[in-house]
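Hi F.,

I've been meaning to write this up properly since the lab meeting, where we talked about keeping a consistent format for the predictions we share between groups. The idea is simple: the sequence comes first, exactly as it goes in, then the structure tokens exactly as they come out, then a line or two of notes. No screenshots and no reformatting. I'm using this chain as the first example so we have something concrete to point to.
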Amino acid sequence: MESGESLEERRKYQRHRGRSGTLSAILTHDMRSYKTLADIIDISESGLALHYEAKNEQRLGESTYLDIFAYRGTCMHLEKLPCNVVYDIDADTAVSGSRRCGLAFCTLSPPQRSRLNEFIREHTQCEA
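Output, unedited:
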């Protein structure tokens, strides 16, 4: 990264803050149950950041699937979106065991991409 170049300038897609009532769940490897339930901090077409209470830390580079939910206003559920763990760090909060995890979406099908864009339009706020 060149001096003065910020991370935001390198991002291809704008990040949007998750509204109250937006959640994500990381699935177990067999995709039959949820491993972690988390609040969406922000989301874009390329990935998202989550906040969760750590029971199972996510492994860097791990491939996984996640579901995304909106349960306020118009309910919405996106299922089994493929992604990779980019980072998983201690969250900067007073709550012990609180974590922040970043995930990058892998190749999404056209219907998944369309639903993701709809979710971003309907259930997030633009970053200022």
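Notes:
The longest strand covers residues 76-90.
Residues 17 and 125 are 5 Å apart (CA to CA).

If this format works for you, I'll send the rest the same way.

G.
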